Amino acid sequence: EDVPSQTFDSKDYFCGKETFPVYESIFTEEGETIRKIAIEIEKPPQIEVHVWTIRKGILRHLYVEKLSKREFEGLPYFKLITRTTLSQWKIFSEGEAQISQMCESRVCRTELEDLVKVLYLEKSEKGHC
User: Fold this and answer.
1) pLDDT of amino acid 83
2) What is its main location (predicted)?
3) Which among 1, 41, 51, 58 is placed 20 to 30 Å from 28, CA to CA?
4) What does the pLDDT read at residue 11?
5) CA distance 3 to 5
6) What is the number of structural domains in the chain?
7) pLDDT digit string (tens) for 35-78?
8) Residue whose C-alpha is closest to residue 65's, from 12, 116, 13, 25
9) What's the pLDDT score for residue 28?
10) Is residue 2 part of a domain?
11) Contact 66, 47 (CB under 8 A)
12) In 3-state terms, what secondary structure has residue 28?
């Protein structure tokens, strides 16, 4: 039998925790790949964009910018990739800080890919939370 979905508001939940949309944009120019990972946060209402500049697999530059929803809506190329919880986003941010130091002088393609996978929530089985 179908379990009725929560329709109290438009928010999605995972194991009782609120989730937030995560977007990604990847483009290449002049031998560099610019990869942006963004999360839309409600309070304060803003978009936090993590920008990675990668050259030949080495993370050359990393910075974070905060934008208003209106500024973000004007940006091209972003697509919704998943929804995540704030605790997973914190793990992502902390891992990003470690990787940025580790990958200044060596290729870190797999580390960067694994870091993004942290944001994807595992579908929980009943009673798994």
Assistant:
1) 94
2) secreted
3) 41
4) 64
5) 6
6) 1
7) 999 999 887 889 999 999 988 878 888 999 999 999 998 888 89
8) 25
9) 92
10) no
11) yes
12) strand
pLDDT score for 105? 74
| Distance, C-alpha 107 to centroid of its chain | 21
Tell me which residue of 31, 36, 61 sits closest to 47, measured CA to CA.
36
What pLDDT shows up at residue 57? Answer: 79
Structure tokens at 34: 């610019």
Q: Is residue 77, in this structure, part of any structural domain at all?
A: yes
Q: Dig out the tokens for 55 from the structure.
A: 């050259």
Instruction: HSE, CB side, 13 Å, CA atoms: give it for residue 4.
Output: 3
> Token match 């409600």: residue?
42
Instruction: Indicate the pairing of strand 13-14 with strand 46-55.
Output: unpaired
Q: What is the pLDDT of residues 68-112, one digit of tens each?
A: 999 998 888 899 999 999 999 999 999 998 888 887 777 887 888
Distance of alpha carbon 80 from alpha carbon 43, whole angstroms: 20
Q: Which residue has tokens 């130091």?
A: 101
Percent of the chain with pLDDT strictly greater than 90: 48
